Amino acid sequence: MPELGKYEKLPRPDSIKAFIKYLSSNPVVQNIAQEDTQLVSIKRGGKTELKVFMTNIYIVGMADVYDILSEVDHVDAIITMSAWNGYTNEAKSECKRKHIGLFKFKEFMGAVYFDGNRFLDYIHPDDRKREKSSW
Prior knowledge:
Number of helices: 6
Number of strands: 7
Structural class: alpha/beta
Strand content: 15-25%
Distance between the termini: 29 Å
Order of helices and strands: HEEEEHEEHEHHH
CATH topology: Trna Endonuclease, Chain: A, domain 1
């Protein structure tokens, strides 16, 4: 559910800790450095390094993407951290056009294994099943 206070855009500290904990146990992740409250660098074995911006925006839209990109010099991915958060199709497409991944927390946990278009286009298996069942 959406927040209307300190954590409206800023991820909760426990969400950031969980994110770093899950990534640290991932076999492809070699190192994680928290550069700022909302920015982490992830070194991956045999893959490109990722700069990831974490947010708690309920539904990441185009304006949010532009706000985030005006705050950070370079970012490879934007993650909305809470399980009930999401993003608009337009924001996802714009990020992809800019070669930036836009993910929900659990989507990123799968996308981290990939580079290039496989990273940008990653769909969580649960969402793949839902897409297939709607055919």
